[in-house]
Amino acid sequence: MSDSDMVQAWTKVLTLCKLKQGEVVTILTAPDTNQQTLVTASIAADALGAVVNRLELPPVNGERSLSRDKLAFVGTTPLTGNRAALAALKASDLVLDLMTLLFSPEQLEILQGGTRILLAVEPPDVLARIVPTEADRTRVLAAASKLKAAKEMHITSGAGTDLRCALGEYPLLEEYGFADAPGRWDHWPSGFIATWPNEGGAHRRVVLDRGDILLPMKTYLAAPIEMEIEGGYVTSIAGALDAELLRDYIESFADPEAFAVSHIGWGLQPKARWSTLGLYNREATIGMDARAFEGNFLFSLGPNTEAGGTRDTPCHIDIPMRGCTVALDGEAVVARGQTRDTNIARAEAAD
Predict the structure, then answer these.
(1) What is the Cα–Cα distance from 294 to 321, expressed in whole angstroms?
(2) Are residues 212 and 105 both part of a single domain?
(3) What pTM value is reported for the model?
(4) Which end of the chain is less crowded, N or C, counting CB atoms within 10 A of the terminal residue's CB?
(5) Residue closest to 272 by CA, chosen among 140, 135, 125, 126
(6) Rounded to whole angstroms, how far apart are CA atoms 20 and 192?
(7) What distance in Å separates the CA atoms of residue 205 and residue 229, rounded to the nearest whole number?
(8) CB 77 within 8 A of CB 101
(9) Last residue of a domain, one of 76, 95, 129
(10) What is the DSSP code string of 178-243?
(11) What count of other Cβ atoms lies within 10 Å of the Cβ of residue 215?
């Protein structure tokens, strides 16, 4: 990926973020931040007239996490207890998070002050392939209007999934790839809509099928996994080796909240692909193609603090599932893995 292409990509994204001349941009980095992403972000922000700062913080959680993936152990970040760094970020108009603050209370505090935050930690070629557009925003917000009005989400699949989730207690997670309003967080690349079930409001059964994806493991399932869900928690995990590995990973946290149902929603990004996960080194990506590809049902386990809840656990698992039907109050918004606006979405993406 050429620096020129990345500067152009950043310029488009920062323009969508409504970056104005004279605004303060702080680029938050870690020692392993991709240098091309960092340098080109700095160039693009400076060219748009921003006052650009860089704040690098040391890594944490290495002695506790079972993976180098930044989302394998959440909640505690280098900002925890770091008042000076927190003050600098709160004084910024826009934070470009090239480190990963997700799920941390400090991120919520920064946002509450009106600072915009954009997370961007995927490899440069992934970022450049999935540059967000106004059409992405339109598509996500149209889905959000339906989800916000719904009282129940019912998910079924040919593999045997039959999950019912009561809705309305928690806000929506609208990811379209750019932070364009005060206090807004977003993630580039992205493109999906989600919410959290009411406390205790998820019931019945989820059956993961061959080809569904486990994150942060970054693996495609080779055999089905059956999960029984009662009162918002997974009560059993059955299957072959994949099921044993998943159960052992969750149990390693020794935290019952790790079995709780977290956010649920569906992918809306036609430029993201289910198949790309197998084409990257596991440590090079956090798997945003998998989370965002159009028509997936994104089923998650772990915390709900991001939505204002009290379930605070360092274990977070995202599971993009294929071939599901997602219905809101009886109306299908995804039918067997196909969004209702598939043709419209692809036409907009082509434009």
Answers:
(1) 11
(2) no
(3) 0.93
(4) C
(5) 126
(6) 27
(7) 6
(8) yes
(9) 129
(10) ---STT-EEESS--EEEE-PPTT-EEEEEEE-TT-EEBTTTEE-SS-EEEEEETTEEEEEEESHHH
(11) 23
